[in-house]
Amino acid sequence: MSAVTRRIKLISAVCVVLAALSQHALRADDAAGSAAHGAQLVSTCSGCHGQHGEGLSASGFPRLAGQAAPYLAKQLRDYAGGTRENAVMASFAKALSAQDIADLAAYYSTLSAPQAKPAREDARATTGGRMLANLGDARAGVQGCGNCHGPGGRGEAPLLPYLAGQHAGYLAAQLGAWQQGTRHNDSGEQMAALAKKLSAADIAAVSAYYAMQTPPTPQP
Ligand code: HEC
Ligand code: HEC
User: CB of 82 closer than 6 A to ligand 1?
Assistant: First the structure.
């Protein structure tokens, strides 16, 4: 083998290794979720969750816009696995591959949707809700929601969802689901323990309060 042939062989071997490495890098990006591919899958979801991920208050369809991707992906896995019980979402989630879940979660995390206008009567319920959200209720042994959900309920990525601007009916339904044990996907059981200490009036007030707060906009 001439020196030239050896050099050509060496160069082509290096090229093969570099190509394999860049393939690997692409796959790693994909696993993190491709919002562009998520956008192609979303037509199944937007009938309920809205064109901009704004949800639909009256039907109990949550806002997804700007929610952190790891939180959204976890919920889809939890519906598929049954630790979060909901027949409709379970059937959609079970039909998605792990990659589809990552892509849809990435897509919704980039969206920014206008806030639904809260009903006027909500304003009266929210004084108690504001106290509970920001200070908790020492007598009931409930810490302020903001300790975990961030100041103003704006969420703490990756796994603590924003509550600000989420629909009141949906928030109340989730607190009820934790009380009844149909949502048991929070590994530390923190939400289940906390929800069981809340009265129906507490749930209505804190849900109304958060629904009126401004939701976060996605970080670029
Ligand atoms: C027929 C209406 C409907 C369709 C279509 C639908 N969803 Fe949902 N989705 C819901 C409802 C209702 C809930 C709340 C269920 C519950 O109480 O847990 C929900 C909840 C969710 C949640 C949890 C949100 C949170 O804040 O925890 C995610 C994530 C989600 N859906 C993603 C999707 C994706 C992605 C698709 C498309 C593949 C989709 N949904 C299609 C009705 C729908
Ligand atoms: C000790 C931390 C902690 C505190 C305090 C806390 N939460 Fe949570 N909350 C969580 C975690 C963790 C999750 C996400 C669980 C999961 O993975 O689904 C969550 C999720 C939620 C959700 C579901 C949101 C969605 O999009 O489905 C609601 C509603 C909620 N919390 C309300 C409250 C309220 C109201 C309070 C105060 C009364 C509160 N939380 C206090 C940890 C906390």
Answer: no
Q: Is 76 in the pocket of ligand 2 (CB under 6 A)?
A: no
Which ligand sits nearest to residue 140's alpha carbon?
Answer: 2
Tell me the C-alpha distance between 100 and 139, whole Å: 45
Nearest partner of 155 among 84, 105, 111, 217, judged by Cα: 217
In tens, the pLDDT along 116-155 reads 766 665 666 678 999 999 999 999 999 999 999 999 999 9
Q: Could you give phi then psi for residue 8, rounded to 5 degrees?
A: -60, -45
The model's pTM: 0.89
CA dist 168 and 208 (Å) reads 5
Task: Tell me how far apart the alpha carbons of residues 152 and 163 are, in angstroms, rounded to a whole number.
Answer: 8
The DSSP secondary structure of 17-38, one letter per residue, reads HHHHHHHHHHHHHHHH--HHHH
Using the mean position of ligand 2's atoms as its centre, give its distance from the Cα of residue 143 in Å.
Answer: 11
Q: Is 88 in the pocket of ligand 1 (CB under 6 A)?
A: yes
Q: How far is CA 108 from CA 19, 53, 85, 125, 173, in A?
A: 31, 7, 21, 30, 22
The matching CATH number, chosen from 3.50.30.10, 1.20.140.10, 1.20.120.80, 1.10.760.10, for 123-212 is: 1.10.760.10
Q: How many CA atoms lie within 13 A of 89 on its CB side?
A: 22
CATH number of 34-114: 1.10.760.10
